[in-house]
Every structure is written in C-alpha cells, then in structure tokens.
Amino acid sequence: MKPNAEIHRRLVVVSNRLPFTVSIEDGRAVFRESAGGLVTGLSAYIESRKRAPAPSPEHVWVGWPGSTVEAPLRGELKREAQARFQSHPVFLSEEEMDQFYLGFCNATLWPLFHYFPSYAVYQPKFWEQYQRVNEVFCETLLDIVRQDDLVWIHDYHLMLLPRLLKTRAPYLSVGFFLHIPFPSFELFRLLPGKWRRGILEGLLGADLLGFHTHEYVQHFLQSVLRILGYEHHMGKVSTSEGIVKVESFPMGIDFDKWSAVLNEPDIRREESDLKNTLAEVKVILSVDRLDYSKGILNRLEGFEIFLETNPQYHGRVVLLMVVVPSRIGVYQYDLMKRQIEELVGKINGRFGRIDWTPVVYQYRHVPFQSLVALYSVSDVCLVTPLRDGMNLVAKEYMATRRDGTGVLILSEMAGAAKELAEAIIINPNNREEIAEALQEALATPVEEQRRRNQIMQRRLLRYDVTRWADDFMRALLAIKDEQKRLQTRLVTPETRDELVGSYASARRRLLLLDYDGTLVSYAAEPQMAGPTDLVLSLLGELASNAANQVVLISGRDRNTLETWFGGLPVSLVAEHGVWIRVQNEDWRMTKPLSNDWKPQILPLLEMYADRLPGSFIEEKDFSYVWHYRKADPELASLRAKELVDDLVHFTANIEIQVVPGNKIVEVENAGVNKGAAALYFLSHSDCQFVLAVGDDSTDEELFKAVPETAYSIRVGITPSYARFNLPGPRNVLALLSDLAKAGAP
Ligand code: ADQ
Questions:
Q1: Which atom of ligand 1 is nearest to the CA of 414?
Q2: Domains of the chain: which residue ranges?
Q3: What architecture does CATH give domain 598-669?
Q4: Contact indicator for 585, 541 with CB cutoff of 8 Å
Q5: Which atom of ligand 1 is nearest to the CA of 40?
Q6: Hey, which end of the chain has fewer CB within 10 Å, N or C?
Q7: Among this protein's residues, is 699 annotated catalytic?
Q8: Distance from Cα 393 to the centre of ligand 1, integer Å
Q9: Is the pTM of this model over 0.90?
Q10: Cα(435)–Cα(437) distance, rounded to whole angstroms?
Q11: Which of 470, 514, 557, 696 is catalytic?
C-alpha cells in the first residue's frame, strides 16, 4: 500500500445529491448546504486532502442539485456551483427525477436492499428511467473527466454508471461505494432477470467495489457467481475485461470534529440548558431519518414494554425521539409517520403525568450544534434499525461521549454492530429484548460504561472517515497497479504485429491449439459446444497452408474430435494426450495405459454425481470426468474440493492422477498430459514458429513444454506460464484470422 502522499490525482466524487441544495426563489438560484452521512463524511475527507502535506487539493463533485432547474438558469448555476463548491450539477427533468429517484431508487431498490420485499415495486418504466439517468450522469462526466482522475461513484442510485463510464473512457480509475446493505442472493434475485444482470454488470465496470461490511461483500460475490457465473479469488472477480476488486471498508465519522465541538460556547450553552430541563430524568435518545428501515415503531413498542415492566422508572426516564422528515408524499412514509404519532400519543396517554411526558417527539431536522448537545446530555442512545448499511448515529454518539459515560444500544441489523460489539447488541424484532436492554443500560455502572466506550472510541478514532476514504483510494490504486501488470501480458497490437511477422517469415510453423474455452466458449453441456462455421473455416484455411501443421490438443474423447474435425487436414490429440492422430494417419496411443483402476473409482464418482444434482460422469477410453457446470455453483465447488480430496486419498497407491479443470474433475492415467503430446509434435517438426494457445490449468503443461521463443498464450486474464494473455475465444479467432490472412509461404 502506498502512503497518502501518493494520492495526488484529482478526485471526482459522483453522488446522486451534491453537498448543497439549490432552490429557485424569485427566479434566482439559492444555495443551501446539505447534510447527511455521505455528504458530511466525504466533505471531511476532501478537507483532509487539502491539509495533507504534498498532494494537490483538486477535486470536483458531480451530482443533482436538489431541484429542477430550467435551461435559462443553468449557466449561472453551473458557474456558481463551480466557484463556491467545486461542484458540477447534473440537470434532470422533474419526470426523470420522479421515476428515477422516487421510483426505481426508493420504491424498488431501497425496500428490496433493506429486506422489505413486499414494499418493492417492479415497474419497467422506473427501470428505463434509472438507465436513462445513469446515462445522463455518464454524459455529464465525460465532459469533465481527465485521463488521470480518480472517479469515486457513490451509492445505489448510480449502480449502472461504472460500466457506462468505463465503456466510453476505459483509461479512467473508477471506484464505487455502496452505502446501503447488499442483500442476500434470495432477495436480490427478486429483481427481474434483465435488471439484476444489468446492475451486477454495471457495478463490475468499476475497478474497485466497496461495501460497509464483509457480509455485504459476500452477498454481492454470491449474486455475481449465481447470476453472472463469475468466480472470485480473495475478492478479485475475473471478468472477460479484467479483474475487479471487491472489499469491505466500514465508513467512519469525523471523530475529532464531533468531540472537539463540545468546547464551543454555543454548544455548551445549549447543553447546559438541556441539562437543566432534563435534570430529574435519565435521557434515552434516538435520532434518525423517518424510514421504515430504521425500526422506529419497534423502538416505541420496546419502550412501552419497558415502562410496563419497570414502574420504578416512571417519572425518571424520557425517550427523546428526533426524526428527520424524509421522502414526504411517499405512501409508506406518510403511513409510518401517522403510526409513529399515534403510538407516541398512546404511550404518553397511558403512562404520562402532568409533570412527566415519557416520549418527547420532534419531527424536524436538527442543526449540527443541537445534535451534538443532544448526544452529550443523553444517558442512553437507542439505535434500533431493522436494516441499516452502517448507521453513523451510533458512531457519532460515541464520539461525543468525552467523559466516557453513556450506553449505546445497537441493533445487530446495522452494519455498525460489526465494529461496535461492546455496545448492548439487540435484535430489534424482539420488543422484550429492547425493553431488557434499556433496563440493563440504565443499570450499567459508570466504570463499566467507561470501559466499554473507551474500546469503541479508540477504534472510531483510529478508523475515522479520512482513514476510510484513504484506504479506499489506496485499494483503488493497488488494483490499478495489478491490472497494469496483467495488462502488460495482454497481446497488444505491437505484439500481434510481431507475432504475425514472425509467422509470415517462418518456413514451417506448428500451431498447438486447445479447443474448449479457447476456440469456443463453454456451453452448459459438453456436446453443445460444437465448432462454429467460423472456427471450421479458419482451421481449414490455416491447415491447408502447406507450411503449417495445425494440432488440436484437447481433453475431449477421440470420437468427438473425429466427428467434428475428421474432415480437416489437422492433427488431433484426444484425452489430454492419451491418443494422437497425426494428419492422414490413424489414431494411436502415446504410451501403453491401463484401465484396471476404473472399477475402483467409479462408485466414488457415482456417489458424488448422485449427491450433486446437475453433475454427471463422462467416461472416456482411459479416463473419467465428473462435470458440474450445470450444478448449484457454491455447493458444486465445495463438492469438487471434497471429491479431489477423496480421490487423492483413494488413489495414493494407483498410477493415476486427479486433475481439476474448468468445472470438471478428471481422473486419468499418470504421466499423460498435453505437454508430453506437444513434445511429440515438436520433436517431429523443424518449425521456426510455434504458437500454443489454451485456457485452463491442463494447458499449463503445454506452455511449459514449448520452447521459450514460442508464442504461448493463455486465454483469460489470469497468471500463467504462458508469455501472453488474451481475454477470450473471440480474440483468439481474430488472431488466427490475422495469421490466415498473412498466408504465405
Ligand atoms: P442514512 O440512512 O442517512 O445513511 P445514518 O448513517 O444514520 O443514515 O446517517 C444519518 C446522518 O444524518 C448522520 O450523520 C446524522 O447525524 C444525521 N441525522 C440523523 N438524524 C438527524 C436529525 N434529526 N437532524 C439532523 N441530522 C440528523 C446511509 C445509509 C446508512 C449509512 C450512511 C453512510 O442508510 O446505513 O451509515 O448512508 O454510509
């Protein structure tokens, strides 16, 4: 990892909302700074970049300005946004914003990603508008971005943007961070097929994808595997275009800011006023946006049970509930507001007295200073979301507890619970548990409060918002470096010219080509992956050039190879080198082999085929293959590992080898491999040009066997003995077509 000073490039932050909101008053644009976790956190990071010793402070923020701005006012607004906020507005019409923001973002994605599937609506026109708005963001960005920029896209509103942007500007470094949970596959799959694939493909356009917790990372990777079929290794997903890193970065807060402001006279005054008003009672605080994901009703019901079961606290405790208005006009939100108000009324009516109101409820935005004062006078902070990506309120409360006292009750459904394990952790669906937690919190001795808080405060101080963003940026630079290293192995236009030149000038050439995954893509069933017309015509053209010897070197059985390629003037190698058919000759074995072991192995393979639906056994002359491409991908990879383990153990004294391949496990005679077969052709040819192309681990033996000067190419962006990589079969065919055109001699 590189030090902070290396992060000197311009930062382009992209989010749905800008750090300010514009309203049009008397025909003029009026700017107001906007608050919220994302804006506050990122603003703190941008400030820290300005303070850092060496780096350039340059940044630009791109997003929607918070209202519809008509064309005549846009120019002026753009200039002012640039001058005052280093921001670039993305202009959207009212209809676009309605179907995109209230529609797809907040009526489809938000409920589904927060485990409220029954609230989610699936309207095709919302999805269309989501695509359109992501495209508008892309167009706006393309006018702004420079080659060297670090582009950091935020949140669920813009999940298609990474791919859109990278398709048009592949040179950019693009990171994406999701602020809400990524749900489990079972939830995510509820989205119609085209949408869910679009979202995953869209996200995988980024170089780095960040989530708050390891759990969300796992959920995302699982959906990628099950929906797109891409596997990952240590969080690196290999797609046909390269690798994408997926990692967790738990977002922190600006700890110093929250704790330092306590000294400000205004806050002190407000704090002491509150203390006077609330002198006789213990204060339980809750602060959140009005949202069904925040568990506000559960909290009230938990508090009601607490009052029922703890009469000794009547008159001695107050629940101070601050709720920020949000998504006004949306049915579920309006309904919830009514339900909250009714429940507050019911509790106050049931338990309240002239001198005591158990629930003090405020439905409004609270300025930063007042929020700090509220945190600092509260004995308990009660955070009960049913789902929450992170929850910064819990962290902010901790940061303001300068004397170390205070008790945090935190829902296990909030991302923050992973880091704040010393809090009293509750399941918010269990109202009794909320009531018991309140009882425990109010009875926690001060020393114990301090002990727990100190641990949490230290962690929050160390991993603050700047560290979070720095870590993200470092990870982005690191994955770009890794991609560059892999890119240098990709066949560039220059390498291709050199390869074609060397081919053209050689008198004799040997082309050793794997078939599946190299000349054609994998299909669900092996027999469905027959050669296309293009493959047959290219092979025919290359093989009929008298200077060429073309060898198809495959793991397939000889009958299949014979049926597909018997009519072409090519040589064939079947079963990874068991059988050779030199052009115009008959099939023969490369060495004497035995099949005595087969009856011993078959029952074990059958047991695995029975245990894993969708898997099956293929028998070849001298090997067995267990195929699992069509089976459940996660269970299959587990079973494959078990099978390999079992087989290795079982075959310790038999002369056979176990070879895991691409969605297969093959059991075959020891000593047979593609490398040995390649050596046969190399030793029988006086060629000056050798090309060896293959896509899986069995081809590595081939790459090891060919001379160092040979052009060896591994298909797929993956480390290999081969000198070069090509992304996929399409690129291999393009190269073969260049060779066919080079023609002579
Ligand atoms: P939010 O759903 O907005 O954020 P949260 O993380 O709690 O939730 O952040 C809310 C922010 O708004 C806090 O900074 C808080 O101080 C402020 N706030 C809350 N109530 C307020 C009030 N009454 N008056 C004034 N300010 C108030 C989304 C995800 C979260 C994730 C964040 C950051 O839903 O899970 O933690 O992004 O990634």
A1: 35
A2: 4-248, 255-462, 493-591+672-742, 598-669
A3: 2-Layer Sandwich (3.30)
A4: no
A5: 14
A6: N
A7: no
A8: 6
A9: no
A10: 5
A11: 514
